[in-house]
Design the sequence.
């Protein structure tokens, strides 16, 4: 039986692990899970409504630092529609952003934000913070003490900048909390902090930069010597793989949505994502097309076995045959093995029987119907 997202959040909290890495397809509920977890760690006071963190009995930032789609929503553009000359990225004031920016200003981190952002964008693209850290303008440096006028970032560049702000704050958090004696810390603002929840900081990055970001994040997490705990969710197989390997593959999960009743499963994963889901999808679509056009041939057994092998690798099963129906596991595994590996000339060119064609469809439907990420893809 599945769980609500609130119950999944409780499961993560009860696990009491240093790092928990979660893979889920887009639309599964990663961002909603981050909100549920924040509410669990720092609940709203009874009878209070709305999302104004000033109304919280205990401010979430005291116990949990989070990055998700709502974090990005706190940054918005003033496009100077009248003059069309001074676009600014403004920061919605609330207790979270005001505290965050005041800290970054106090700790003198604007230069580090610029440097980190430029690693993932054009190294000439330079942010300029206002003196009160409430808005940012951007220009292209010419290299001769000249710069362009203010420019507006693309959506991808904007996301990377917001992540850069968060990452530099997180770097400060880890560094400061690594000082064991609170009285000797540069700031006492993080003394009550228990969790960092990061949801998908990978939008619009190419593979090289995505890998670099994952390695940097994993290195920062591994450098944490305090009791701070980390939860990271992602829809990117590559980002997941890098973190999985950098963090030694411990405490990794897949979040799945069960469509029939809207509940969720958080299942432990023992292997990485096998590099890419694109080939899984290609295999699946090839077999589906052959079934739909009644053009199933013997080589489709090879493709089907390949699909089962890759699914088993992703989900952490030692043998692909463990994904087969329990009551027919031995029979079907032998049938697929024989048909996909046959080298006899009269077998290699013979059209499959109707029973064999039916088996192809049955096994594909079984895989799609019983293993969550195929259900996600088909929705």
Sequence:
């Amino acid at each position: 039986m599945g769980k609500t997202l609130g119950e999944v959040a409780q499961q993560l909290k009860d696990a009491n692990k240093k790092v928990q890495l979660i893979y889920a397809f887009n639309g599964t509920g990663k961002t909603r899970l981050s909100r549920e977890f924040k509410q669990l760690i720092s609940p709203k006071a009874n009878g209070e409504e709305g999302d104004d963190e000033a109304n919280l009995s205990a401010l979430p930032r005291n116990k949990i630092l989070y990055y998700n789609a709502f974090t990005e929503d706190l940054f918005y553009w003033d496009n100077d529609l009248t003059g069309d000359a001074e676009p600014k990225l403004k920061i919605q004031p609330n207790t979270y952003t005001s505290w965050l920016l005041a800290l970054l200003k106090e700790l003198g981190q604007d230069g580090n934000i610029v440097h980190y952002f430029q690693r993932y964008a054009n190294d000439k693209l330079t942010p300029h913070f206002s003196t009160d850290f409430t808005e940012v303008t951007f220009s292209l440096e010419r290299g001769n003490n000249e710069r362009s006028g203010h420019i507006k970032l693309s959506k991808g560049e904007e996301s990377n900048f917001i992540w850069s702000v968060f990452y530099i704050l997180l770097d400060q958090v880890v560094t400061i909390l690594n000082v064991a004696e609170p009285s000797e810390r540069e700031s006492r603002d993080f003394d009550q902090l228990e969790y960092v929840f990061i949801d998908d900081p990978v939008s619009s990055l190419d593979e090289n930069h995505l890998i670099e970001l994952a390695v940097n994040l994993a290195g920062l997490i591994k450098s944490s010597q305090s009791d701070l705990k980390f939860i990271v969710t992602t829809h990117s197989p590559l980002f997941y793989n890098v973190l999985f390997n950098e963090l030694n593959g411990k405490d990794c999960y897949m979040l799945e949505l069960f469509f029939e009743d809207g509940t969720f499963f958080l299942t432990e994963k023992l292997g990485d994502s096998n590099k890419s889901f694109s080939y899984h999808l290609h295999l699946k679509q090839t077999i589906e097309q052959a079934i739909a056009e009644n053009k199933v041939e013997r080589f489709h057994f090879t493709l089907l076995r390949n699909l089962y092998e890759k699914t088993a690798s992703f989900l952490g099963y030692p043998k692909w045959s463990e994904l087969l129906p329990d009551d027919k596991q031995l029979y079907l595994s032998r049938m697929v093995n024989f048909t996909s590996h046959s080298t006899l000339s009269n077998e290699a060119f013979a059209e499959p029987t109707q029973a064999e064609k039916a088996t192809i469809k049955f096994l594909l439907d079984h895989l799609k119907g019983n293993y969550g990420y195929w259900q996600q893809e088909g929705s």
